[in-house]
Design brief:
This protein has two helices and no strands. The protein is mainly alpha-helical. Helix 1 packs antiparallel against helix 2. The longest helix is centred in the C-terminal third of the chain and has 30 residues.
């Protein structure tokens, strides 16, 4: 997954968490936080893959 898709997942997760806050839905809040964490991990992996590619490995 590319950095852009990972960042989009983070934004989607933040939105879901915020909506969960507004409607007081703990499950939606947790799901949003989970999506944010997944997006951050995917972004980190994409950055690492780019560095490896640039280093010629």
């Amino acid at each position: 997954m590319g950095k852009a898709k990972a960042k989009a997942k983070q934004v989607k997760g933040k939105l879901k968490e915020t909506v969960g806050d507004v409607v007081d839905d703990k499950g939606m809040q947790a799901e949003g936080r989970g999506e944010q964490l997944t997006g951050k991990a995917q972004e980190t992996a994409a950055k690492a893959a780019e560095r490896l590619k640039k280093s010629g490995r």
